[in-house]
Amino acid sequence: MEDRAPEWNAPATDIGPAGPDTARPQQPESTGGAHEHRWWILAVIGIAQLMVVLDATIVNIALPSAQQDLGFTDANRQWIVTAYALAFGSLLLLGGRIADLVGRKAVFLIGLVGFAGASALGGAANSFTMLVAARALQGAFGALLAPAALSLLTTTFRDGRERAKAFGIYGAIAGAGGAVGLLLGGVLTEYLNWRWCLYVNLVFAALAIVGGARLLHGGRPAERPKLDIPGTLLACAGLFCIVYGFSNAESHAWGDVQTWGFLVAGGVLIALFVWWQTRARHPLLPLRVVLDRDRGASYAGIFISGAGIFGVFLFLTYYLQQILHYSPVTTGLAFLPMVVAMVISSVVTTNTLLPRFGGKPIVPTGMALAGLSMVWLTFLDLDSSYAAHVLPPLVVAGVGFGFIFAPGMNLATAGIAPRDAGVGSAMVNTSQQVGGSIGTSLLNTLATTAAANYLAGKQATPQAQAQAAIESYSTAYWWSAAIFAVGLVVTLVLYRPGPPTVHSSDGPVAL
Known about the structure:
Strand order of the largest sheet: 1-2
Distance between the termini: 22 Å
Number of helices: 17
Radius of gyration: 22 Å
Number of domains: 2
Helix content: over 70%
CATH superfamily of the largest domain: MFS general substrate transporter like domains
Structural class: mainly alpha
Largest sheet: 2 strands, antiparallel
Shape: globular
CATH topology of the largest domain: Growth Hormone, Chain: A
CATH class of the largest domain: Mainly Alpha
Order of helices and strands: EEHHHHHHHHHHHHHHHHHEE
């Protein structure tokens, strides 16, 4: 990676591995939103992002009811989640590049309409096959929507201070969306029925469509390079194999060819994709986007934290419901202090700390706090209470996540040339999605093994089963802590020291 200053708050220039591209002048293009409406645009983008992020968890709450209603088996239940993850994760880079080629506003609105239609189809599903197809369509349209939304934010907010505020809010939404999904899913499932966990997206989409149609500029690119077909096929196939392989790990052994075979194939395809990007005339992912140190550190940090964050979302949800016997609604409410802490730390960090210190002390500190919270959660047992034992580490986790996601997303998209904003934004979503898929399967497998080992040779009494569950959760928390420890080292090494700087034609200038 190149140790050069990111273009923090200046008109973006095409900076690649060889330096500024001075041979070809940049043509002006729309920045994606009217300056006077930028905060309304943030509200529209935030609604769309919340819809995509919470959909990863809101359906989990509805799964037992949907299974009872449609009559599918436990073995098939995972496909309701996997279908969404496969389509979303494998198509994100393509969706981001389409936004660069076609125009961000058009792709944003198409993604919203398609996501709403797929949600309506899923809510009306009368069979397992119909529900899985709807979830796959949700993922496909989400892969158009998510990178377009982030690239619109990137191109709308160019002023450093306003950009910091916008990314603080956006990062809080992206990080807290899973917890909001748990709460909303619990309320809808308990007081209406599981189908409303899908129908609710129509409300979010309608608000975002009306706002987007009225407020956004077309963002039609001045330059429209051809789509990199070989790169697209390699990236989509590679990401599909990786997400599918880790998804299979939840129901197959790691030694099963359906697990390791897909993972190896995915790794080979991604390696071929990277090789091809160095030779393609119009690469799907120009390496100038990822070779900057701060951007590379941010992508790595978001990937690692995406894997680790499931330790708190997934297993603490199990603990609250199965050990403390909370209802779905109460479980969702229990996560609200974490959401509040995340929102506050996201806004404070991006507005006050990031411009002064840069990413190097901030994101590693977030990793340390998140890891500490995971270690703290390992002390939970059958007699623990929420206020004394769950709430403190939950708040610490929220502060840590706020230190990671908002600054990471800000630095991951800072200074990207407008024609690369879509694919650069897609890398953020891809990092988080693939990290989440890996974290879910890895932690689930380790937790299940820990529970089985505890019960080996013991009579399966209710007390023993409850203690086995505690052992499995504790194992997951320890591994989550280890993941965040890796994130601490990686981000500490990769991030450039010192405050972010502006890259101008005269060289880097301190912000």
